[in-house]
Amino acid sequence: MTKMNMLQAINNALDTAMAEDERVLCFGEDVGVFGGVFRATSNLQQKYGKARCFNTPLVEQGIIGFANGLAAQGSVPVAEIQFADYIFPAFDQIVNESAKFRYRSGNLFNVGGLTIRAPYGGGIAGGLYHSQSPEAYFAHTPGLKIVVPRNPHQAKGLLLGAIHDSNPTLFFEPKRLYRASVGEVPDEDYRLPLGEAEVLKEGTDVTLLGWGAQMEVIEKAVEAAEKDGISCEVIDLRTILPWDVETVANSVFKTGRLVVTHEAPLTGGFAGEIAATIQERCFLYLESPIARVTGMDTPFPLVLEKEHLPNHLKVYEAIRASVEF
Amino acid sequence: MTTTKSKVVYSPVFTDGAEFRIPTFKLLKQDGKLYKSAKAPDLDKDKALRIYRAMVTTRILDERMLAAQRQGRLSFYMQCTGEEAAVIGSAAALDDGDMIMAQYREQGALAYRGFTIDEFMNQLFGNEMDYGKGRQMPVHYGSSKLNYMTISSPLATQIPQAAGYAYGQKLRGEGLCTITYFGEGAASEGDFHAALNMAAVHRVPVIFLCRNNGYAISTPAAEQFAADGVAPRAYGYKMDVIRVDGNDILAMYQATQEARKLAVEHNRPVLIEAMSYRLAAHSSSDDPSGYRSKDEEAVWREKDPILRMRLWLESKKWWSEDDEKQLQENMRREVLETMKRAQKRPPPPLETLVSDVYDEVPPALAEQFDKLKAHIRRYPDEYPKSAEHAKGGA
């Protein structure tokens, strides 16, 4: 075990994967000697050479197109998109190509070795173009997996899980937490399963569900709610696609209430998908409407970030409203 | 640090690159004779005949399948007519282990590699023997056995993928390369520019082969780009480039042979611009009479690449009238027979609706599938293709 922040854990995961398998490659804008804008790939070029860890020209569709080809060839590319906001130039390569490679070829070819890493989310005074959470756009695309870690331990285990998963995976990293705190991270290779939510805390009155940086917000809200005598069950979804319906439904059977929170805007956000599925599964068990606490239906602001974001106070209010309905 | 070593001037000087005129490489005249001072590449009789048979096969397949589409037996088709030399001449210059990442009109390359008429038909009719499991439109072929990447409909997406694939080949030290085909219209997409730039920067063993066939559906090349074709763009990326008469089988073969050497032995990506003409419509849904003249087509019909090669083969005494007659008859018969067989084969099983989306069917999708099967069991007459497959299960 070593104390690491999330960036160090991600770097350690990449290092672990590259040391074990020479087919693993890391590339993207500034990823080489500089180590990426956030330094997630620090020292990898020095260690594994320019052929396996390299800078690409500034062209997201090229990075992902190139990565698709590499993955189809049998390599294990881990492509970095500098900010999740800049993933959209590569949208076609991800949605039409990565996601459909296996299906359209009848499994003659696949890009299952592909992992795309991208820092997402707000809270860093990044404004419109350095704060978005684009998971819902990709959640509408069968064939992809979408993973979001909440802390250093999860980041290493889930990233190694993604790299070794046989499906193309988007790995969205909560950049606000990159250096926010440290935690114990095992030094060896360990892989957390994709597609499984984790129950962080058991409770009886209401289920809180989120992912990534929102888990910290939930934790604070739950602290406040428990002072009011409300017993909260907390679940980290971890994988947005395909998501773990069972774990969430089982929790709601018990608590009868669900609050889902994410940073992305409300309309068409992934909380809507969760709410629809859970009301279908748990209709007769629900004691109150499923609540969504999300970013507003606006572009991400610069100065009024705190107001825009679904913070612990908004989540706390939703918990109260759900219990008192 | 800049990589530009530029002379300094003290008054504004604009240039538009018009001084770069890229020559066209040709060897074979339309009468089957070599140009004076041209030398035929090293191409033995067996290989020459393998190429020729693939060209004729492709032409006959195209004619018959377009007719089948017109008769309503097939939903869609795309012909290679007029571009057989560009596609097959280049494919023949490769190692059979090299990867081909085509756009959609390159069935000739697949025919050259040995894809059988039966295999073509199974894809065209999307039956249970289609490798793609009946998921894609006709002509979206693929074969892992023959190193032919399954076609994807979105235009130009395969170009950066080819660069990535070839980079992987280089890292493996396989001594292989990747060729990717696209039209001059697709070369306008961002993917093309991304791919050339990345391949040049990372010294990737890839051959970019642009079939400049004059039209992107109805848009003539003159409305596609202002420059002297696609080839000059290679200069911007510092990439080797050659322009070839795309209807000249010998020139296409030799140019690709040399390009492959540059790619595999020197890790230099190469752009080949094959100047040709799409004699047929873009697809069976297109009608070229709406945007170009019969006279224009007639000029190109006289440059038929298959006839040109046949005359060359005959001049070498490698081919005769009888050989031609026999090949034509056999091929026509085979196409018709296999078409009938393919049409009769059952559709892919219902399970193929949910398989291959992921490596394993995720629980939510399995649940949707069970619901679908139960629904089909309630209305078996409404789902004649899959009622049998829906039996059993939840």
Describe the structure.
The complex is a heterodimer of chains A (325) and B (394). With 325 residues, chain A is of the alpha/beta class. Chain A has helices at residues 6-20, 44-48, 60-73, 91-97, 101-104, 135-139, 152-164, 214-227, 245-255, 270-282, 305-308, 312-324; strands at 2-4, 24-28, 53-55, 76-80, 115-120, 145-147, 169-174, 183-185, 198-201, 206-210, 232-236, 239-241, 258-265, 291-295. In chain A, strands 3-2-4-5-7-6-12 form a seven-stranded mixed beta sheet, sandwiched between helices. In chain A, strand 6, helix 7 and strand 7 form a beta-alpha-beta unit. The mean pLDDT of chain A is 97. With 394 residues, chain B is an alpha/beta fold. Chain B is 41% helix and 9% strand. Chain B has helices spanning 45-70, 84-92, 107-113, 117-125, 158-172, 190-201, 233-237, 249-266, 294-301, 305-315, 321-344, 363-378, and strands at residues 24-25, 99-101, 178-183, 206-212, 215-216, 219-220, 240-245, 270-275. In chain B, the strands form two sheets. Chain B has a six-stranded parallel beta sheet with strand order 1-7-8-4-3-2, with helices on both faces. In chain B, strands 5-6 form a two-stranded antiparallel ribbon. In chain B, strand 3, helix 6 and strand 4 (206-212) form a beta-alpha-beta unit. In chain B, helix 1 (45-70) runs antiparallel to helix 10 (305-315). Classes of the chains: A alpha/beta (325), B alpha/beta (394). Chains A and B meet through helix 3, helix 4 and helix 5 of A and helix 5, helix 6 and helix 12 of B.
Describe this protein with a few key phrases.
heterodimer; A: 325 residues; alpha/beta; 5-stranded mixed beta sheet; 12 helices; 14 strands; B: 394 residues; 6-stranded parallel beta sheet; two-stranded antiparallel sheet; 41% helix
